[in-house]
Every structure is written in C-alpha cells, then in structure tokens.
Design a protein that fits this description.
Elements: E1 4-11, E2 15-21, E3 27-34, H1 37-45, E4 50-56, H2 61-68, E5 74-78, H3 91-103, H4 118-147, H5 163-168, H6 173-204, H7 208-213, H8 221-231, H9 240-246, E6 251-254, E7 259-262, E8 265-268, E9 274-278, H10 284-298, H11 303-313, H12 318-339, H13 345-348
Parallel strand pairs: 1-4, 4-5
Antiparallel strand pairs: 1-2, 2-3, 6-9, 7-8
Helix pairs in contact: 4-6, 4-8, 6-8, 8-10, 9-12, 10-12, 11-12
Length: 353
C-alpha cells in the first residue's frame, strides 16, 4: 500500500521550512533547506509514496511550482488571504500549519496553469504593468500642476510639442525639474508600450482561442490576449457564476433569520437576502476587461447594445445596466471559449446575465 505524504513549505528568499505529515496526519519530518533547485529536488527525491506539496502564493511560487510538478503527485499553491493563520507565527509553525491544512483538505488553491501559456502569461503581465505605470505617471504630472494651482484639464499637458509652454508655467526651479523627470519617464513608457503590445499580439495569435474571443463585442485583440493570459483555460470555471465571482462581478448577499415558526411548523422567510455589493476578493485585471468591454459596447452599435438599451427601458440605472452587460459578456466569453465557437447573437441571446 502506497503511503501519502503531506508536505507544507514556508518559502523565503534564502531558506524553506518544511513539515511532512504521514497518512495518519503525524509530523514525521521537519527540516530547513536552502532555496535552491538542486537542494529542493534532493529533499523530494528522499521521500517515498504519493507526495502532495503546498506552499503560499508569492514571488517564488511560479518557479517552485514548475520545479516540483514533474517530481510529485500534486502541487497546490494556496491563497494567503483565504488561508490566514491565527496565533503565534514562525517559519516552523507556518510549515506545520500548511501541511495540516493540506492533510485536512482545507486549502484554497491558486490556479497556476499550463507550461504552454507561460510566455503569453508573462507578456500579458508586462503589458498590464507598463500600462498601469503609464497611467500613474500621467496622474503624477497632473497632480504636480494642480498642487501649484495650475489648471491642466485634457491631454495637452502630456503632448511633447506643448511641453516647453507647460514647464514655463512652473515658477519654482525644483518643481520644474521634478516635472521634467516625470516627462522623461512618460516618454520612455510611451516608447516601450507599443513594443510590448506587439510582442503580446504576436504570441497571442499562436492560440486558437484568440481568434474566437476577439469577435465578441467589446473584446478586441488586446483584451482577447489578456483574457487568455489571465484565465489560461475556461475549464477552470464550471459555471458562469464562478467566473463572475473570480472577475469581481459576483453579488455578495447577507441573510439571517431565514426561518420562522407558525402554527408549530417551520417556514422559510420570503424576505429576499440583502445585497451588499460586489465581491471584493477577485482578479482586478479580468474585472477591468469585462467592465471596459461593457462600457465600449454600451456606446456603440450591435446586439449587445440592444441588450443594454432594453435594460435601461426597464428602469435599470445605467451603472447597474453596465454591470449586467459586463456579466453578459463574461458569460458569452465562457461559452464561446469552452465550445470553441464564434460569437453568434441568435445562439447566445438566451443566456442570462
């Protein structure tokens, strides 16, 4: 009979604390090893049986996941926010706790995908990071002018041909020099972003799903590429509601006192649960994609524009109508990707959002 080992790893830059439990849940090995590929594999090779490993999501998780996957039965990367620990904390305690949670099957895992999408995933991250950095620099430039009571609405403040004129409005030499540094950073990011965008699109075109997703209203070439890079596979989500929750489009409801007694019998209350907004623990990049697609569709033509107009006609507020539209687009994305079919308004019109 093959025994199962439950291995908890608390990973740090220079060391890894490890706790190993046997099939009865007893800690049989505790060790501290160097964070080095050869050392880690040597430790794993010294164990026998079905090996299940867990460690927390972090800087090292992608590298360690790829390293261990060929050598163990299962690798799980857990969500630190959903696996918070109470009480005292140390590397040894954390490793023991992780192995205990793995033994009890109480791990909320983070999806780490397939090797074939690693390049697209990294290029997607690069594009998103540079885009966010570009937005931050632009906000800093405007904030600097506003801090000195200089109005700067619109986009003229960013244009190179008006730069001398805008810098002349700043009388303080130190502040002007600071603005010049921000402009240099802005120019560098603006030059780099098209290159990263091109690399992302070249890699995305290698994947069949990209051609399908880009035909969905509101999902253009870049959004389709980022969708594949972030989601990796639609089969992670059994239903559209799971995708809504992962994308921050799931409604959180609170309910209490659901039953009451009448004539000696228990009855369920007909009072609807209170809606407390959208779920907060989600993938922000996916939420931006679906909400951005909904905003674009709501201001253009097409069948989903008609869907949006019908919601407004029924008295739905514009913000809630766009949210419903975003959920609709997410549901359509899941269907097209899973079934490997192109968007067809007649075929998908019955899907609820």
């Amino acid at each position: 009979m093959t025994s199962t080992k439950y291995i908890g790893m608390d990973v740090h830059t220079e060391s890894i604390s490890i706790a190993v439990r046997n099939s009865l849940g007893k800690v049989v090995i505790e060790s501290v090893i160097e964070t080095k590929a050869s050392t880690i594999l040597q430790f794993i090779d010294g164990l026998r049986g079905d090996l299940r490993v867990v460690f927390e999501e972090g800087t090292w998780s992608a590298w360690l996941y790829d390293l261990l996957k060929p050598h163990v039965t299962e690798v799980l990367v857990c969500n630190t926010r959903k696996n918070a620990q109470d009480g005292s904390k140390s590397d040894r305690i954390d490793a023991r706790k992780l192995s205990e949670m793995l033994y009890m099957n109480n791990i909320k895992s983070v999806y780490h995908g397939q090797h074939g999408l690693r390049t697209l995933k990294e290029l997607g991250r690069s594009y998103l990071t540079i885009s966010k950095d570009l937005t931050r620099v632009m906000n800093r430039i405007k904030a600097l002018y506003r801090s000195w009571a200089i109005p700067c609405t619109g986009t003229e403040v960013y244009a190179p041909r008006y730069r001398v004129e805008w810098l002349a409005k700043i009388s303080e030499a130190g502040v002007r020099r600071r603005a010049e540094h921000y402009y240099e950073q802005l120019d560098a990011l603006r030059a780099l972003r098209p290159k990263v965008r091109q690399d992302l699109l070249v890699e995305a075109k290698k994947h069949k799903a990209w051609k399908l997703l880009r035909h969905i209203p509101g999902i253009g070439p870049i959004r389709a590429a980022i969708l594949i890079a972030v989601m990796q596979t639609p089969h992670r989500f059994r239903t559209k509601r799971q995708l809504w929750t992962y994308s921050g489009l799931g409604l959180e409801t609170h309910d209490s006192g659901q039953y009451y007694v009448a004539e000696g019998q228990l009855h369920r209350s007909k009072k609807p649960p209170t809606v407390r907004g959208l779920n907060k623990d989600h993938n922000h990049d996916l939420k931006d994609i679906f909400k951005g697609a909904a905003t674009r569709v709501s201001s253009s033509g097409g069948p989903l524009r008609d869907f949006y107009e019908n919601l407004l006609a029924k008295g739905r507020k514009p913000t809630m109508a766009r949210l419903t539209l975003a959920r609709k687009i997410a549901a359509i994305t899941l269907i097209c990707w899973k079934k490997e079919v192109r968007f067809d308004a007649n075929y998908l019109k019955q899907q609820a959002a």
